[in-house]
What does this fold into?
Amino acid sequence: MQTAETLPANDQTNLQDGDIVIVPEAVCQDVIGRDDAFKAVEAVFAAMAKRDAWNFPVVREALGHEGALYGFKSGFDKAGMALGLKSGGYWPNNAARGLTNHQSTVFLFDPDTGRVKALVGGNYLTAVRTAAASSVSIAHLARQDAKVIGMVGAGHQSTFQLRAALEQRKFEKIVGWNLHAPALAKLAEIAKEAGLPFEAVERDRLGAEADVIITITSAHEALLLKDWIKPGAHIACMGTDTKGKQEIDPALFPAAAVFTDEIAQAVTIGEAQHAIAGGLLQEDDITAIGDVINGDQPGRTSEDQITIFDGTGVGLQDLAVASAAADLAVKAGRVQVTRLI
Ligand code: NAD
It folds into this structure.
């Protein structure tokens, strides 16, 4: 491969057939904001529900080296013309090297020719696309008058989640719980920036107060029990993306309206897996959020209804935000350009 060169900004909108653009992590952070990510994720959920976009089977393997988990998430969005994959995984020893443990890169291909067209850093994009998913669910499913948001979890994803969620409703207060309470300081800092009060609370209080709850932990047990949750609450379960992980009481599911990004993932690796296994929920009871976005299915049907969004995370979300990032970076003259031949 020849060395990548950075073209002047005015040349970057005139890319030639076969040019490959490289969008580094730092450029992704500069060019793609929460609003761009929201629009890209909302559009791809809508396309998935219309069968205009589909995810391919996920590959995830333990490497037997460095304790690493490595895999691919891929798909094709015919509506948005995004084809490609996110490759990466989890390297537990990276932190000691000053690197992020979760590593990912998105490869985009030209759907007309199969030629690679972009390499996009995927670490920041993973966080913004995951936050965009819960935000899309809040926008379409939470009560309009939601005032209190509850955060369960205060790890890497949580700050992205909270910042994006605060833009969806006129929240007046933030309550938070984390296994290790000191980590809540970074959520308190975001509350301060937003001019909102923040309170660290026990989980039962969080359930009693919050109109919108985001769970974003690596827990393997129900952290929120059914009786703690306020009528009318919206719960975005974002942490459970693997078999065995769990964040909420499966008993919440039978009486709730349940939505997801992709039903096949929800029942196998999402939060719904436990309610399905316990016979408390059937696959047919789950609605793809894209159908709500498209107006083909109702969202919330009463003010007292509890709504659950099972955000499992799909490759098409990554392709959607990476495509947007590549387009915006080209327009801003911020990409490096190279060719394979
Ligand atoms: P992180 O390691 O930075 O933070 C983990 C969080 O989980 C912390 O708040 C920690 O206190 C909490 N936690 C860990 N074990 C727990 C337990 N037993 N009980 C209660 N809390 C516990 O991770 P992160 O990057 O913030 O990711 C959080 C979760 O979100 C992970 O499970 C990750 O796989 C998942 N995730 C999902 C998506 C998606 O698309 N749905 C995308 C990215 C990450």
In short: Residues 4-126+316-340 form a domain with the ornithine cyclodeaminase, domain 1 fold (CATH 3.30.1780.10). The chain has a mean pLDDT of 95. The longest strand covers residues 69-77.
